[in-house]
Design brief:
Elements: H1 2-13, E1 14-16, H2 22-40, H3 44-60, H4 64-67, H5 70-82, H6 85-93, H7 95-98, E2 101-104, E3 107-110, H8 138-144, H9 155-209
Antiparallel strand pairs: 1-3, 2-3
């Protein structure tokens, strides 16, 4: 009896390479993402993104070479932008999450069922985009960046920094010109005063000589 149950479970864990439809990929992505949310303690926003990333990956797998090919590498890169460093390190240590699919004799085996055998048990409700998302928006995950601290620099910060430097340069230039003008004026006044004093002194000496 146990052997029969095991064989039934193995059949449930595998899908023929020719039968990987959108509906099948969506259901597998949902089950996998639900368990990732449970074990990695994902937020609702992270859960939504992880579901979409997993669906994108599964819809790109068409054969043995795709299981750990470019789609798998892209999945890991995108997850780095969604998960925190702690979550991502834990994710890599759990093989049924890190390598969710295996190719066996013309079938895909979903490794998460080695840990969670009850296909009907879910810890979370469906992601917000479960009914509408059909894959293909992977670049959005790079820009959303909800968890990891390795995000791209903020454009507004760069603009502010540039503006600050511009103001600083402008103020410095303006101050420098102001000081220069003031120095020239003071120098001119000093010369005028010196000339006036010398003339007065010279006139006084001429008067005394008379």
């Amino acid at each position: 009896m146990k052997k029969i149950m095991f064989m039934v479970m193995m059949m449930a864990m595998t899908i023929s390479a020719n039968a990987m439809s959108y509906s099948a990929a969506r259901n597998e992505a949902l089950f996998l993402s639900d368990k990732m949310a449970y074990e990695l303690n994902l937020t609702k926003a992270q859960y939504d993104d992880v579901y979409e990333i997993n669906l994108d990956y599964m819809m790109c797998v068409n054969g043995r070479n795709d299981v750990y090919g470019s789609a798998w590498s892209r999945r890991n890169i995108e997850l780095q932008y969604v998960l925190t460093a702690y979550q991502y390190n834990k994710y890599m240590g759990l093989n049924y999450f890190y390598r969710p699919m295996t190719w066996n004799n013309g079938h895909w085996t979903f490794n998460v069922y080695s840990r969670y055998s009850n296909r009907n048990h879910y810890y979370n409700s469906h992601p917000h985009t479960y009914a509408s998302y059909r894959g293909g928006s992977s670049s959005r995950h790079h820009n959303s960046h909800r968890g990891n601290t390795g995000s791209m620099p903020s454009t507004s910060h760069s603009t502010s920094h540039s503006t600050s430097n511009s103001h600083s340069t402008s103020n410095s230039h303006s101050t420098s010109n102001s000081h220069s003008t003031q120095h020239t004026t003071q120098h001119s006044n000093s010369l005028a005063y010196s000339s006036s004093t010398n003339n007065t002194s010279h006139t006084s000496r001429r008067g005394n000589n008379k």
